[in-house]
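A student in our group prepared the protein record below, which I am reviewing. What it holds is a sequence and that sequence's fold in token form. My question to you is simply how this chain folds and whether the tokens agree. Do not assume that whoever made the record got everything right. I have pasted the whole thing underneath without changing anything:
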Amino acid sequence: AIGEHTGASGTDFLDAALIGVETACRVGHWLGRDHYDLGFHQTATSGAFGAAMAASRLLGPNCERARHALAITSTRASGLKSQFGTMGKPYNAGIAASNGVEAALLANAGFISRADGLECAQGFAATHGGEKANLAEVLEGLGSSFVFESVEHKFHACCHGLHAAIEAIGAACSAHDFMPGDIQQVTIEVKPSWLKVCDIAKPRTGLEAKFSYRLAAALALTGRDTSDLSTFNEAVCSDTELNDLRDRVVATANASLPDTAARVCIDLNAGGRIETDHDLATLLPAPIREEKVRAKAATLLGPTRAEHIWRQINALRDAGRMVDWSSLFAG
């Protein structure tokens, strides 16, 4: 929206997007796990600061206005994990964009806020459970090194906390010949904090299904496409065969595992055992990531529209090319 408002070129847009996501990643890292564990959804909170910086970049490189955009965002950013499993969860991403854009527009119009509202006493971090790490350390290398390069993509249409387990189950299914009826029990081990986020034992809606280790495991074990939004629906929540398999899945805590990992143990009726693990922090090579991202986009948008958008995004790199923003994401 700001790109269209300012008549930005494709390269201007890409610069702003990179600044925005890098800011969101660094602020999110600075706020830390305490912020998340307290109940705040960092997509919405740190994401708002990223949106503010991206919008500020497109509105013109003015350090003072950008500083006030961050400050305004510090009194505006919001979003709670208690909304997980409802429409409120994806709405949190929209809140981030809305709050950031509004803050940048206000700052660009001359609105003044406390410049250190993010880090000051009674500022955003202090009142929202931030770990309050040394801000200078978090900002070290800004502009020359990019933490965004190590961001993990979401290849499944569900909570990120489920992804390592789904990947581990996929690996087990590829490497071994067994059927759902052969399974006695599936044990999923994850970091304890994830059990407070995505362990809905008996989901009733498609949105709740996105936060259920047990049902997501059953979907993966029966070959359902977990990258497809339509896979997570009310029908799978009441499917008798899926629920029978779901009830043979146990999610348990393993404090020795990092946030990004899961360990899966599949005990078979015949007495065998299959053990696999997966750590999302081990980044896939760029060509494989691209392939998986494009496959997910094709599933969600349809092959034709996904290919159109992919070409449009790549064309943004053409220096000086003006963009028809109204048709950029058209099918």
In short: The chain has three domains: 2-152, 160-279, 292-326. The mean pLDDT is 92.
